[in-house]
Every structure is written in C-alpha cells, then in structure tokens.
Amino acid sequence: MNNEGTMKSFMKGAVLLTLASLMVKLLSAVYRVPFQNMVGDQGFYIYQQVYPFIGIFSIWTSYGFAVAVSKVMADHEAHHYSAILRTAFSCIAAISMLFFALLFFGSDILANWMGDEKLGGLLKVSAFAILLMPPLAILKGYFQSHNRMEPVAYAQVWDQAVRVSIILLGTWLLLSNGASLYTAGQMAIFGTVAGGIAGLLLLLWHFRKSSAALPKAVPLQKGPILKKLMAISLSVSMSALILLLFQLVDSFTVFRLLTESGVERMAAMEQKGVYDRGQPLVQFGLLIATSLALAIVPLIAHMFKKKSGRSANLYAQLAFRTSFLFAFAAAVGLTCVMPYVNEALFQTREESFTLIIFSWQIVWMSLLLVMNAMLQGLGKAKMPALLLTGGILVKIACNWLLIPVWGVTGAAVAGNIALGFIVAGLFLYFKKVWPLRFAPVRYYGWLFVAGSAMSGIVILWALLSDWVLFDGLPSRWAALFTTFTAVPLGAIIFLLIIAKSRIITEKEWYIIPFGRKLAGLQLAINSRRKR
C-alpha cells in the first residue's frame, strides 16, 4: 500500500513537471512573436545571436545536471546525500565560473568572431545568468531526488513568466524612449537573468519550508561521483540541446558568411533575423512530439524493468508512430500556409520558402527526441552522443558550403541535412540494439493520403480566402484570417482520414495524453461505416 502511494505521488509529480515543461516551451515559442514585432528583423537577429550562449548552459545545468544529481542521490543511501550535493555544487560552480569568465572577459573576442562587435555588451549581460545555474541545478536535483516535483514545476513556470514579462515590457519601454536595438537586446537578455533569480528565490523558499533535514555527511570518493554526474547530465540533455547548438553554429557562421559573400551588413542582419523566425515555429511544432515522448517513454522503461518485452515493443511503436504522425502533419500544414503564417505573425512574407525548409526540422527533431529517449531508457547513451556530435560537425560543414551559394536558405537546408544524418544513424543503431519494426507500410501510405488531402484543401481554401473573401482587408489582417481558418480546417481533414484508417487503434489513443477524444471520434466514424 505504501509503495502504491509512493508511485501515485511520483506519477502526480511527473505529470505536473511535464505540464510545467510544456508551458515553459509554449511561452518560449510564443513570446518571440510580439518581441520580433517590436524590434523588427534586425532586433530579432541581435537577440538570437546571443541567446544560445545562455540557453545551452541553462538546459545542461538546470535540466540535465539536475536530473543527474537526482539519479545519483537515488542510487545512494541518505547519509551520502550531503557529500553528493557538495561535490555536485563544487563541480558545477567551478564550470560556471569558467564559463562566466569566458563570456564576460571574452565578450569582445566572441562578438568579433560573430562579425558584429556591438554584440559584446549583450554577451557581458548574459554572463551573469550563468552564475545562477549552480544553485538552480542543485536545488532542482535535490527536490527531484525526494520526488517533490511541485517546487521544480512552479519555479520553472515562474522563472519563464518573469523572464517573458521583463523582455516584452522592458523592450517596449526602452524603444518608446528612443533606445537602440542593441540596448533593447541587453534588456531582453537581462530578462533571462531576472527570471533565473525569480526561480531561484522560489526554490529557496520551498527549501527553507522543507522539514526534512539532511543526515550528517559521510565522505564519498569524488572521482566516481563527478564522472557519473557529467555522463548522465550530458546524455540526458544532449537531444534537448541540439537545436540550440545549431543556433550557436548559425550565430558564428550565417551573418559572417553572408557579409563575406557580398551582402550588405544591414541586409545580412535582417536576413538572419528573418531566418530566425523559424525557431519559434519549430518549437511550437515540437510541443506535441515532446509531450508524447515525455509521457510514453517512461512506460517503456517501466515495462523493461518488469521484463515485459511485448508491452515495451507496443509502447515503443506507439511513441514512434504518434510522434511522426503529428510532426508530419505540422510540417505539411506549415508548408501549405507558411506565407500567411509568416505575414500574420511576423509582418511580412519574406523568405517564406526558407522557413518552409526550416519547418521540416520538426519531423527530424521529433524522431530524434523519441528514439534518443528510448535508447536512454535502454542505457545506451554513448552512440547517440557521438551521432549528435557528428550532426553538429555536419551542420558546420554544410553552412560553410551552402550559405555562400544559397544564403539563409542554405542554412535551413544545412539544418535538415545534419538532423537527417543524426536520425539515420539513430535509426540504424536502434535496429541493431532493438530489432523492432516501428510501423507497417500501410501506416506510411495512409499518412501520405492524409497529408495530400490536407494540402489540397488547405491550399485551395488559402487561395480562395486570400484572393476573394478577404481581398478588401489590409494584407496582414487577411493573412491572419487565412491562417486561423486554414489551420483548423487542415487539422480536421487530416484527423478524419487518420481516424478512418485506424493506423492508430482506439486502445492506443487512450494511452496518449488527451487521446480520449480522438479515440471517441475514431469509434464514431468507424461505427457509422459498419452500418
């Protein structure tokens, strides 16, 4: 009975943490739209050039390192907790100080490497966010090790809410008073620092409230603990870091290669800013795939522990099929309506073809997230890490080859090539360690039929609404109406065909978060057909 209560408490906390993570990702994708509208493409370029420096370190420490701390503590007795926490804190604090020094004192050098010396001030501000990471990582790891997910979930949402509020309000106030775009960029980066402080204060408040006192410390060998912390933190966070690492590659290559190939500096900044519009679109498109991976992959790990191979196979197949289904639908849908989405959200239709290519990263990333998570559940972390590292090298090489020829379109193509390389490698490796057939040929055939039907109807509707129904409206309002009518229309067509095909059964829909309604729809459609 006690174990059942503990399991229920753990699942409740896990669900809360999953919802908080999705809320944070949603806010992260959404706030970029009003921010870009305020600062324009040049201002968006300025912010996106620097943000990866903070984002990479933040995800690795406050997510990956926190998980590592909780796992290492779970593997030891309570009298070792103090020693583990002290070792972990000293390790992450030393790394944070090193990265702070590199960013703060090397800001001018890094800015010159990126081709824009004015970015130095933003890099200096971003360095202070890194100093907050050690206490954030340790406190999150402590709470997670005690199955207390609520403080972590609340801190994540509070951190993001404060950050987004300061970015948007601060930027608006500065620009209203005639500040430069680089000053506005510094305010946006400061919002990340302020959000981190807010999250840390909330975690400290919960920690002080905690009645549980740590037992007296018993010394442990630091070497094995440090090795385990680094290995787990890197393997856990690597797949979440890949898009940010690609952004970092773009920060050092896109603008510089554009200017070196003859593009005027201001035009190069604006082109990079337009290219960066793809980031929130991909983030938004990955929300469903991320939630499915978070929900289904723990079930796979649980079934393996129970030695229930058949059930593990079913969950693995379901994770792959549902993630690919929704990612494919999102990518096809964005391909059909991208010019309208681009104008509705970001004011112009510039580089819509580039953004279409960029948006197909949703498919690669969803497959990468699911397969990497499943391999982690099997304890296979080394090969995925090598493949992800190789993918970064492919991205660098393709950027250097393609940007001088195709501009920012080349950078979008490079991202797809690099992610395709990683996914192909993961797929082959997965088949080697777990010879599982993810889906039958029939599944892919029905996806093609659903995608084709959705494309035809959405394109026809978009052209009709753009040329006939909303012809008298200002172009951005027309694009907004087209977007908000075409997207649900396409989703309905796609889901109706998928429901009729039954490539995912009603029982399988019930396993998926919010899948009950889809199961009910599928039952209703197929019961009518039988009559």
From TrEMBL:
It comes from the Bacteria. InterPro entries: PG_synth_SpoVB, Poly_Biosynth_Transport, Polysacc_synth. Keywords: Cell membrane, Membrane, Transmembrane, Transmembrane helix. Signal peptide: none annotated. GO terms for cellular component: plasma membrane. Pfam families: Polysacc_synt. Its main location: membrane. The keyword Membrane applies. It is found in: Cell membrane. It is a multi-pass membrane protein. The chain crosses the membrane at residues 53-72, 84-105, 125-143, 164-182, 188-208, 229-249, 281-301, 322-341, 353-373, 385-403, 409-431, 443-464, 476-499. This is O-antigen/teichoic acid export membrane protein. It comes from Planomicrobium soli.
